[in-house]
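Interim report, section 4.2 (structural modelling).
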Amino acid sequence: MKMLSYKFRVVVLACACVFSQTAVAAETLSIVQKRGHVQCGVSQGLPGFSNPDDKGNWVGMDVDICRAVAAAVFGDSAKVKFTPLSAKERFTALQSGEVDMLARNTTWSMHRDTALGVDFTGVNYYDGQGFMVRKELGIKSTLELGGASLCTNLGTTTELNAADYFRTNNMEYEIVAFEKADEAVAAYNTGRCDAYTTDQSALYAQRLKLTDPAAHVVLPEIISKEPLGPVVRQGDDQWGDIVRWAHFAMVNAEELGVTSKNVDKMKGDKNPAIRRLLGVDGTFGENMGISNDWAYHIIRTVGNYSETFERNVGKATPLGIARGVNALWTQGGLQYAPPVR
Amino acid sequence: MAEWTPTPPRPAPASSVGFSAWARRNLFATPGDVAFTVLGAAFIIWLGNVIIDWAFINASFAGDDRTACLKPVQGACWPFIDAKLGQFIYGRYPEAETWRVNLVFLFGAVGLVPMLVPAAPFKSFNIAFLLGFYPVFTFVMLTGGLFGLAEVETTDWGGLLVTLVVAVTGIAASLPLGIMLALGRRSKLPIIRYFCIGFIEVFRGVPLITVLFMASVMLPLFLPDGVNFDKLMRCLIGVALFSSAYMAEVVRGGLQAIPKGQYEAGAALGLGYWKTTRLIILPQALKLVIPGIVNTFIGLFKDTTLVLIVGLFDLLGIVQFHFTDASWATPETHITGYVFAGAVFWVFCFAMSRYSIFMENRLSTGR
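Predicted structure of the assembly:
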């Protein structure tokens, strides 16, 4: 019986591989161009990354990456459709060709990159585990949390990361774990613990559910690495390049001071780096199989990295996230894009 | 001889009529009763107060974003429902095309109401409308692409629309399929019998989530590249098969309860299998199991929320989805949203339940 089920599994897997291979070998770009829109896998709702507005339109940082790819391929950021995917079905959907790319707050890890037949094209948001405390405690750094009780979710890596961090720094701590995020937030809200810990971008979103969000502060330190980025199928390098450079174009544009407002004027700029980026000089778009003014369209319709950040998660939004490690490398952050040349 | 006249009955003593007597008999008969009555009344008043405070007195009614719902003592955040209502009903169905959904809802009501009222005339015409015209009409109107209607992909459907499409399709498909399966399971032909037993036991033995997952995650892997049939369609088929297995067992319960004499009477009248079944057995069997059938319908209606896990946004799904809109995130947003979704589900399920009781009373002849 055991043998039989093992054989059955092998057969199922073999079939699955055969079909996913055919999907991989296909030229995604020509499929997308023929179809007339990019099919993009996003989350089922994550504030600031992919969530609906009042009209039901998708907005967020992950959504903007999809729109940027559409702008690069079609010159029109509206030619994209979104498939909301659960965490479980996201890679299957990508492998089966149901979506052309994933921009679903997916952490880039070695296992996913090497074992699942997918490629990560970059990091559009450096996330990581952080802590939130009450302002009245006057705590400025995670290192002052010695002896604190922490509210967190049960059985997640969050719990283990916190344990590691406190032990490494020789601090006392007490973990109060809850099954659901909402329970943990409610417990923190009623003063059951001194601090609440989870991924930092989520901390900002959860803070809005507290009775008085302004009375709480997210500490600047990050104690784990959660680089979030777009994902494509392995084996289609051309398509991977387009998705990769859609993000790089936005980062380069910020670095060069090109925004959605001044992009038309910048086209006449003398700076050769800007001229290459906007497709005035060179054939960088053609090399990827798309038009040379690909980046011009991205910046015109979606904006540069700073614009998408500030619009979706930045200081002016309810989330109010500071640039932090997501600042440009020239400003002490990690966002760095290779040059267009 | 004086005619005998009965003494007119005396009125009941004042202490045994009216509200006070009723209350004394039912609420304050013993010290224990008094204690329970007082406690119960206190609880009801307290609960009523909490609900009224939350839903009305401390609630916000107008506003454009989360700032409207951040009072120090905040009740329900109704502006959230107001701002998102279009989303909750139609999902991301294009705003310019929502009249099509409204028309489908309207036609559905127009077809269903006279169907449900026994006194309404033209029943056969009504049935033809509901089972022949309406499904085609709904399909054409909602998906579009014909007669100059813009095409709307099912990925853009959502909210109450998806809930109703899944539930109504499941209900409409499960009853006939379930009856066929129940008859098949009692058939004397072994192939039909074993097929029906196998089908019923497989689908009853597997959680609905598994069926939906298989349909949405595994199926695309086996299909050749480019062949990709609609996600909503896959869910509809999954839900219909699943609920028909349950329905089959409910109907079989009714069939079991029909005495053997009914079959023999049918045979004695010279009726064949189909006529006996159609004219004698099924009308009695189905009448017996109306509560069970409606129970399955109600369960199915609520199970539609499971389509969320394959990425379709039913009513509950889209309400939860909109919790992630940071411009509406407040401590009360999700409570308000859940109360709203619960109320909508309750209205539908309660209506089904009342109609089921009405049907039972109407059909309870001879018992």
